[in-house]
Specification:
By secondary structure, the protein is mostly helical. The protein contains 10 helices and no strands. It has one domain. Helix 4 runs antiparallel to helix 5, helix 4 crosses helix 6 and helix 6 packs antiparallel against helix 7. It starts with 7 loop residues before the first helix and ends in a 10-residue tail after the last helix.
Length: 202
Amino acid sequence: MPEFTSGFAILILTAILGYLLGSIPFGVVVTKLMGLGDLRQIGSGNIGATNVLRTGNKPAALATLILDGGKGAAAVLLARAVAGEDAAQMAGLSAFLGHLFPVWLNFKGGKGVATFLGTLLALSFPVGLAACATWLVTAIISRISSLSALVSAALAAIWAGFLGHGEMTILIVLLATLVYWRHLPNIARIRAGTEPRIGAKK
């Protein structure tokens, strides 16, 4: 864990603002702006980039991926600039929770993979890059987005320790646990061999 240097009030404010930023459902916003309909009624109903890709619109999926990752990164970087590393981790956690449980969508959000990776990139670029590379390699081999996310989340804490960022371990384990919890249905489909491949329309 990082050293706690910020006051309680600052940490609470950081958590609130991080949550509100993370709650912005960019997948829903992007698909509506591009005339693709209500994302919650498409494919799996998930608000993330993988489901946006099922619309067949790759630019929309890419925009969603960047924005969902960007909101986690932005929360971390803003908190770090204003307060410190403890506030940065609090903001990252809160943004991630905001994506999972967005107030604007009755607390029914996404699975948090892009936000997870964006948060890691902002907290420690080498750790985030290693996690992204893990996702990419697994995706190339398996062509299963959910499996790529699970492998990346599982190895992220190991990457943090290996790259000298042990202060991130507790946060990463917490985020990874939530990623696995949100992917329980996917895990069941992976085991059954019925999980959709990347780019397949559901």
